[in-house]
Amino acid sequence: MIVVVLPAHLRSLAGISGDVKLEIDGDVTRRSILDALEARYPMLRGTIRDHVALERRPMLRFFACGEDVTHESADAALPSAIATGAEPFYIIGAIAGG
After folding, report:
1. Strand 2-5 vs strand 20-22: parallel, antiparallel, or unpaired?
2. What is the Cα 97 distance to its own chain's centre?
C-alpha cells in the first residue's frame, strides 16, 4: 500500500481529506503512482501532469524519503520505504515569490 500526500488544493478538487492509499501492481515508480492516482481520481487528470505529454505541471514537486525526485526519470524505481508504505510519497505545490 502506497501512501500519497497531496497539497490541499488537489485534495479539495478530488473531494478527499487526508492521505491517499493506493495499491500498485508492479514496480513502484513516480509514473505508476501517478497513473494509479489519476485512475482512482479522474478529476486529477491534467492537474499533476499534462494530458498529452504526461510531463509534470510547473509548480509541482515530488519527494520520496526526504529527497526531491522531481527531475529523476518517471520510470525510476522509488525507495523500498515508499513501496512498502513506511514513508509517504509527497506531491508538493512549489512556492514562488519575488
Report:
1. antiparallel
2. 24
Per-residue pLDDT tens digits of the chain, which is 98 residues long: 999 999 999 999 999 999 999 999 899 999 999 999 999 999 999 999 988 888 888 889 999 999 999 999 999 999 999 999 999 999 998 777 66
Element (H, E) at 40: helix 30-40
Which residues does 16 contact at the CB level (< 8 Å), separation at least 6? Answer: 6, 41
pTM of the model: 0.91
Q: Write the CB contacts of 5 (distance below 8 Å, at least 6 apart in sequence).
A: 19, 20, 88, 89, 90, 91
